[in-house]
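Exam review. A common question shows you a sequence with its structure tokens and asks you to describe the fold in words. Practice with the pair below. Do the first one on your own.
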Amino acid sequence: MTTPFPIAGLALTGPGLERSAERRTDALLLPTLLGDPATRVLAIRRGRLPIDATDRLRWRAPHPDDRDRLVVFLGTDGEHTAYVGVMEDPTESDRDEGWAGLRAVAATLPAAEGATAATLIALANWHATHSRCPRCGAPTEPVLAGWVRRCAEDGSDHFPRTDPAVIMAVTDADDRLLLARGSGFLAAGMSVLAGFVEPGETLAAAVAREVAEEVGVTVTEVEYVGDQPWPFPTGLMIGFRARARDTALRLRDGEIEAARWFTRAELDAALGEEGLRIPGRASIARRLIEDWYGAPLEAPDTMLRR
């Protein structure tokens, strides 16, 4: 049976650095920090981060070239050391050993480093797609230590985007768990249902709508259990449990390829001889499945999408 308490200790949820947002208004903040050898710099290249031999983030001192790069102020630690992120240009060594995508290391990074890495990747993704003003199309430039982009033509400010999505462990009256395979999944992959929150919608309403749309099931007893930044590219996954009022599955054409109710014994068998793949250990999806199962699962970390 599931516990009555929210799940805790999710990867990427911190606590991270003290963001020290009040310092972002200082126009000299980034030049000052880049001139201080005590500043810690985390580089990012095409969504990949430098990782050391112990699977931790590899920080460095500022380089002179950093002054010509896009830089964001990430915050400070308890010792008042400042941390910044730097977007480096891609090089031939991008995929060499020592650089990794966040998905590959999220489960093993210390809590503070995971939260900081998620912040930097989300900001880098936002900057990469918001170089133009959505109002007039003119170029935008980073201000406020990388936390705002300002239109060079009309002066409007634009802020980092976060896209909330609900993700839910749906169970029936017999405490079976519903898993589904989306149209972009590998043939052996299945996960709990998820979907983006629509304008004017509560989170509970989004849970009910997504389940009804994707598999034709009505749910009640929607219960919040945790949330997780998921910067791929700019998501916030908000996790729930929900109880199904009916179990007949009517799959949404073009979006859900397969769905199935599992007992715990059936999930064990599927993960074994059937070769079922479920989300990786860093994801809230995996934790929702394990929360229902009642223990960690031995299934390896694998990519579910084609």
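Now try the second one, then compare your answer with the model answer below.
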Amino acid sequence: MTTTIFIDGEAGTTGLQIRERLAGRHDLKLLSIPDDLRKELSARRDLLNAADVAILCLPDDAAKESVALIENETTRVIDASTAHRVADGWAYGFAEMDQAQGKAIADARFVANPGCWPQGVIAHLRPLIAAGLLPADTAITVNGISGYSGGGKQMIAEYEGGKAPQFIPYGLTFQHKHLPEMQLYSSLGRAPLFQPAVGHFYKGMVVAVPLQDAPSGKQLHAAIADHYAAIKDGFVEVAPLSDAAKLAEIEPEALNGSNRMRLYVCANDDRRQALLLAVYDNLGKGASGAAVQNLNLMIGADPHAGL
């Protein structure tokens, strides 16, 4: 059986990456809108209603508009925008979040693709809070670095035009749009203090969550490793616990081009300090790879198809 797919916003960074991952699959038929009709409401409405699955790669307001244009009760939706990530009636598209999430995505009509930054935070904190190793009201800080592709077309043009510095901290008002999903799906009682940065490389990222008054490194590592060992067909792996002062493999571009995420636990038990690190591709597991993973779950395809 062939599933019909329409990528609304296929010309953007995430849309292009998704289309590339779906190209050549015999179980899918890709619908495409002509360049001159991309902004025509009627043309988009027709394709949205003709698709078995619509994948929205649009700004928030345009994504909400696209959902409103669907007039049938059969078209399923994967929304890569921020618009529906904490909305009622939408399954959150991080399949490894817990053992039930893959089925929740598979059964859902509406799936909200996760933000790139929150996934690395949720991946560590949700298992630790569930295991009782961290209180939900723990004061959490999050930092990290991502490739400039996450900033969209304008930022890509600035970097590729040689008009951007090597390193740019941002989110300095601590009101980043990813905070609601970061808090909700990590099971945190309050929003973390989140301060991201952009580096002079196209894609890839490292997300870091430092912990004070932390449980032992072995306890943290065991809880996280046990969580992901129980997830069938997952793409999240846990690196062995190491006491090395430096690991060259922890670098933003290490998993580029894949849908994998690798988690690290670094700890000093004497000081009761720990650092949780997640490495993944912001355009892979952080965006288009996650969308394809969610699509595979929704249509019952091979979990690794296109990934």
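Model answer, second protein: The two ends are 20 Å apart (CA to CA). The domain at 116-283 is CATH 3.30.360.10 (Dihydrodipicolinate Reductase; domain 2). Full marks require stating both points clearly.
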